[in-house]
From TrEMBL:
<comment type="function">
    <text>Probable flavoprotein which may function in endoplasmic reticulum associated degradation (ERAD). May bind non-native proteins in the endoplasmic reticulum and target them to the ubiquitination machinery for subsequent degradation.</text>
</comment>
<comment type="similarity">
    <text>Belongs to the FOXRED2 family.</text>
</comment>
<keyword id="KW-0732">Signal</keyword>
<dbReference type="GO" id="GO:0004497">
    <property type="term" value="F:monooxygenase activity"/>
</dbReference>
<keyword id="KW-0560">Oxidoreductase</keyword>
<dbReference type="GO" id="GO:0036503">
    <property type="term" value="P:ERAD pathway"/>
</dbReference>
<protein>
    <recommendedName>
        <fullName>FAD-dependent oxidoreductase domain-containing protein 2</fullName>
    </recommendedName>
</protein>
<dbReference type="InterPro" id="IPR050982">
    <property type="entry name" value="Auxin_biosynth/cation_transpt"/>
</dbReference>
<keyword id="KW-0274">FAD</keyword>
<dbReference type="Pfam" id="PF13738">
    <property type="entry name" value="Pyr_redox_3"/>
</dbReference>
<dbReference type="InterPro" id="IPR036188">
    <property type="entry name" value="FAD/NAD-bd_sf"/>
</dbReference>
<keyword id="KW-0256">Endoplasmic reticulum</keyword>
<dbReference type="GO" id="GO:0050660">
    <property type="term" value="F:flavin adenine dinucleotide binding"/>
</dbReference>
<comment type="subunit">
    <text>Interacts with SEL1L. May interact with OS9 and DNAJC10. Interacts with TXNDC16.</text>
</comment>
<dbReference type="GO" id="GO:0005788">
    <property type="term" value="C:endoplasmic reticulum lumen"/>
</dbReference>
<keyword id="KW-0325">Glycoprotein</keyword>
<keyword id="KW-0285">Flavoprotein</keyword>
């Protein structure tokens, strides 16, 4: 009995040692705070763990030279807040108008300190539940059939305090420096510690390892004081304006390209960094050689006894010694805190710095573990903006909606409209929606058709990678077909080797819309929901499987897709062909005419005129309709005789010119109506 009581007391103690929350978020950076905001608005039980004393600790140090490359456009000429987010790459999503980033900085490329201040205010003004100075050092699983996902997540912090949660959201970003080891790599300075004072580099010769924005940012800072700068990386430079990927080299940092191509000593080299070796001579100069030169030699004997490449090739590119070598190779995800039971594995190839996740942002190894923010960028790496604030603020919202449906039975938000509003709904979204615009080819609006295409249900910004799972993930039904609205660049317009400034690069004619190069809306129509197999077998570089029909809205120089003839009319006719219906709007007089001359009224007349709904006429509207040839002007017609006016023939031909519809004799329709 004593042993039993002792064991029970131990079990009780161990149970109370775990502080429980439904949702645990690791990291109070932008994505962690964004997730916390949505959970708080939904009144969920959550906590955010932050190892530092304040949110956004990454931005307190990085970028080292303190200039962000995320644009902060103050003016767009529009007052639509959703549209303006297309050109605000720093604000998080919230209901509080005070928390727009333009209130914290007026700089087009803001100072990083403004981001730190912004994130502090975001957390404090919204009263988000962030637990600071809490570093999670270990995460493991506890199997339990009663848990949401069949297990709980057990977290331990630096003080050995334990926490238990049903769902884990990892928002730590990528912050572990990417280090390449080779002979002599101990002489390399890291981006995270190198001096940012240009005077420390005056009169020096510098080699930078890397070819991304951090490397060029470092070079830009010292460009005017060094003898020369060389940069080496295994791949060619990728310019963001050519790849249309914001993570590639931005124009604000590419001054060294000028000095390289305009023969001012600086230069770029390509080579595998793991093949390099660095040897330091007695004067402290750093000599670049190749690893294979050292494999069978005693490097401790000194540089004089070591063969250098220039000994055999006297014009070897890096034969001049360097004063400093700086590593700027980016960051990796920290896998060290996760127990093997979670299956948090790195990706493959150029995605190895990110954990493996599904298109739903859920870990491939563990159900209920979601990766948010920069660390989730493997879903759209070098394709879209999911690794940056202006992209992952929307993917974080998508994850929240998936969780609301899975754990709380709250379906994906949707709005039901009559079918007559189909064209207007699409045009409105493609002209103002920020999530579609920023997360092109990744997030899409879904239109679910109701029976007989009399109405539709509109879902915003759903991850297209899990389209086959739409019914399960959203709680909505897709039984009668669907449209998918997505934004895309032209198939062959993006790439490191592409000339994006070539003559005649833009398409202006609606009939050639499918050849559009710049970002433009694309509408896919499916008679049924695509299967998982169809998704896997989709054509290369297609975001979706082959549809039953597809329509490209022609690219527009102003990204304003409201032109009646170039944009709206082709879209409407595409929708009409898919649905076999007439989506035009009509005046009441036209609906009255159709009631006596058509077997089936257009949806606008059925849902409006017949129900005594529609636009109230006015003299100005009447004159406009007459001037446009849509109605006859009866004001000057003499109706004193017994003969009814027959001048309507022209207007009827105008109304029916796009649709050939059988016309039954008027007397027959009247008799049928009387019967």
């Amino acid at each position: 009995l004593g042993l039993a009581l002792y064991a029970g007391s131990l079990y009780a103690a161990s149970s109370t040692a775990f502080l429980y929350h439904d949702y645990c978020i690791i990291g109070a950076g932008p994505s962690g705070l964004q997730a916390a905001y949505f959970l708080q608005r939904a009144s969920r039980d959550y906590v955010v763990f932050e190892r530092s004393h304040a949110p956004g600790s990454f931005f307190a140090l990085y970028p080292r030279h303190r200039k962000l490359i995320s644009i902060n456009k103050q003016y767009t000429g529009k007052s639509n807040s959703e549209f303006n987010l297309r050109h605000d790459w720093n604000s998080l999503l919230s209901h509080d108008r005070r928390l727009l980033f333009r209130r914290y900085s007026r700089d087009f490329f803001p100072h990083a300190d403004a981001m730190v201040h912004y994130l502090e205010d975001f957390a404090s003004l919204l009263k988000l539940r962030v637990q600071y100075n809490t570093a999670i050092i270990h995460v493991t699983l506890e199997r339990d059939a009663q848990a949401w996902n069949g297990h709980y997540f057990l977290l331990t912090d630096q003080d050995r305090q334990n926490y238990k949660c049903s769902s884990l959201l990892v928002a730590t970003g990528t912050w572990v420096p990417n280090v390449v080891n080779f002979p002599g790599s101990e002489h390399v300075e890291g981006y995270e510690t190198v001096s940012i004072n240009p005077e420390d580099f005056a009169g020096q010769t510098v080699l930078i390892l890397g070819r991304g924005n951090s490397a060029f940012e470092t070079a830009e800072n010292i460009l005017g004081v060094t003898n020369f700068i060389h940069m080496v990386s295994r791949s060619r430079v990728r310019l963001s304006w050519a790849t249309h990927y914001v993570g590639d080299l931005r124009a604000i940092n590419n001054g060294l390209l000028d000095t390289y191509q305009l023969k001012s000593l600086d230069g770029l080299l390509e080579g595998d960094l793991e093949d390099l070796a660095i040897i330091k001579d007695k004067k402290g100069k750093l000599h670049i050689t190749l690893r294979f030169y050292l494999e069978s030699r005693n490097t401790s004997a000194g540089i004089d006894s070591i063969t250098l490449p220039q000994d055999e090739l006297d014009n070897f590119a890096t034969r001049a010694p360097y004063d400093r070598v700086i590593r700027c190779l980016g960051w990796n995800f920290d896998f060290s805190i996760y127990n093997r039971s979670l299956g948090m594995m790195p990706g493959k190839g150029n995605k190895k710095k990110y954990p493996q996740i599904k298109p739903s942002y859920e870990s491939r190894g563990t159900r209920g573990l979601f990766v948010l923010g920069t660390a989730s960028h493997s879903v759209d790496f070098r394709k879209s903006a999911g690794g940056f604030i202006h992209g992952f603020r929307y993917t974080t919202r998508a994850v929240h909606r998936l969780l609301e449906n899975r754990h709380h039975g709250v379906p994906w938000p949707s709005t039901v409209y009559p079918i007559t509003q189909l064209t207007n709904s699409i045009i409105k979204r493609v002209n103002e929606a920020s999530g579609l615009y920023q997360m092109f080819s990744v997030l899409a609006d879904i239109i679910l058709l109701r029976e007989n295409a009399t109405a539709f249900e509109y879902l915003e910004e759903y991850p297209v990678g899990v389209l086959p799972e739409l019914e399960m993930q959203t709680g909505r039904k897709a039984r009668n077909g669907l449209f998918v609205i997505i934004m895309e660049y032209g198939r062959n317009f993006s790439g490191a080797d592409k000339d994006v400034f070539y003559y005649n690069r833009a398409v202006g004619e609606a009939q050639h819309a499918w050849q559009s190069n710049f970002l433009h809306p694309v509408i896919y129509y499916y008679k049924r929901l695509p299967t998982e197999r169809e998704m896997k077998l989709r054509p290369p570089d297609w975001p979706l499987p082959r549809p039953d029909a597809v329509h490209h809205i022609v690219e527009d120089f102003l990204t304003d897709w409201t032109a009646p003839n170039a944009h709206i009319l082709p879209l409407r006719r595409f929708l009409e062909n898919c649905l076999s219906t007439d989506l035009r709007n009509f005046f009441a007089e036209s609906c009255f005419l159709f009631a006596f001359t058509r077997q089936k009224l257009p949806p606008f007349c059925r849902q409006g005129y017949v129900r005594m709904q529609g636009l109230l006429g006015s003299q100005g509207l009447q004159h406009h309709a007459v001037a446009a040839g849509l109605l006859e002007d009866y004001t000057l017609t003499d109706f004193s005789g017994d003969r009814p006016p027959d001048s309507r023939d022209g207007s009827e031909d105008q109304l029916l010119r796009d649709h050939v519809i059988p016309v039954r004799p008027l007397q027959h329709l009247v008799n049928a109506k009387d019967e």
